[in-house]
Specification:
Layout (H helix, E strand, L loop, with lengths): L3 E12 L3 E4 H5 L6 H8 L3 E4 L6 H16 L8 E5 L10 H9 L5 E5 L5 H15 L4 E9 L9 H4 L4 E13 L7 E9 L7 E3 L12 E3 L1 H23 L8 E4 L4 H11 L10 H4 L6 H11 L8 E8 L3 E8 L1
Length: 326
């Protein structure tokens, strides 16, 4: 086989705020209960950013952890892509803040906005840069402080979301392009803007000149989620020339336990191959997949040579999947 470049995972890292908020603690502030939240979402707790904790500070900590795990220095990075819907500022990009925090003065850094699909979109985007040969090593980060855009009087949404950040280091490496060789094998991304009203934030610079709050039609999102994500997953598997049985680990966006289980069942992926962290973190939007990857790598589940499928769906709607040989 002819030699080609493939984007290979060198390291993983994560960062969470100091403050854990349990369902029982939430129930003292909002008309809800631990049983109600667990039954509908599978969530037991979430992390909420406090004073001095922002999307960029969490992203920076996750990036530093990923660099340590990769055995690399900040100066080895020439591309930073941050998936986020909760940037520190309208501009500049959170990625540039991470770049400055790490002391990197070369390369390029930018944010990518695809809501909960942000990390998958960021992986696919960084992969294009690395495979083109324009860049060598990328920090791909999902980071969010969704607690800052929640309406804490809306019990249907405020109980579901949390804050955090996760990161991976991708490196362009010479590859024979074989199915068993490491790196990003395939990725499929999709969007359909007709669904905006089902999951959106009711503010923005150009409309209300405010940040706004998250609004969601939960039943509608659930109804669309399973069908949409299985579509891109099947596309990724077709591109790779394999089927779902080849997947060692399924790492979906951690939005809702019922969506995760229904997606795995529809794809024929055994539940013991599914990485689930929604109970610990809640829905951390673009941060959820890299947070889950970090846990599964650190506890020894995801090992070198494993075939990992990541997938997500977010507001817009956006949805996507990527198949990675670890």
């Amino acid at each position: 086989m002819a030699s080609q470049l493939r984007s290979c995972v060198r390291g993983v890292g994560a960062a969470l705020p100091a403050h854990v908020v349990t369902n029982d603690e939430l129930a003292r502030k909002v008309d809800t209960s631990d049983e109600w939240i667990r039954q509908r979402s599978g969530i037991a707790q979430r992390y909420v950013a406090g004073e001095g904790e922002t999307t960029s500070t969490l992203a920076t900590r996750a990036a530093e952890a990923a660099l340590r795990n990769a055995g690399l220095e900040a100066g080895d990075i020439d591309l930073i892509v941050v998936g986020t819907s909760t940037p520190d500022y309208t501009f500049p990009a959170t990625a540039t803040q991470v770049q400055a925090n790490l002391g990197i003065t070369h390369g390029v850094a930018f944010d990518l906005q695809a809501v909960c699909s942000g990390f998958v979109f960021a992986v696919a985007t960084a992969d294009k840069f690395l495979r083109s040969g324009s860049n060598k090593r990328a920090l791909v980060i999902g980071a969010e402080t969704f607690s800052r855009i929640l309406d804490w009087n809306d019990r249907t949404t405020c109980v579901l979301f949390g804050d955090g950040a996760g990161a991976i280091v991708l490196e362009a490496q010479e590859s024979d392009g074989a199915f068993l060789s490491p790196g990003v094998i395939s990725a499929r991304l999709r969007s359909d803007g007709r669904h905006r009203a089902k999951l959106f934030v009711d503010g923005g610079p150009s409309t209300t000149q405010t940040v706004g709050h998250l609004r969601m039609e939960g039943k509608e999102v659930f109804r669309h989620a399973v069908g949409m994500v299985t579509d891109v997953i099947h596309g990724c598997l077709a591109d790779a020339g394999c089927d779902a049985k080849a997947i060692d680990w399924f790492v979906p966006h951690q939005a809702n336990r019922r969506i995760i289980d229904a997606s795995a069942d529809k794809l024929g992926i055994p539940r013991e191959k599914v990485v689930v962290t929604v109970d610990q973190h809640g829905n951390t939007s673009a941060a959820s997949i890299p947070l889950a990857l970090d846990i599964a790598v650190k506890d020894g589940r995801i090992k070198k040579g494993d075939l990992v499928m990541i997938e997500a769906m977010g507001g817009g709607f956006t949805w996507g999947a990527a198949l990675i040989r670890w």
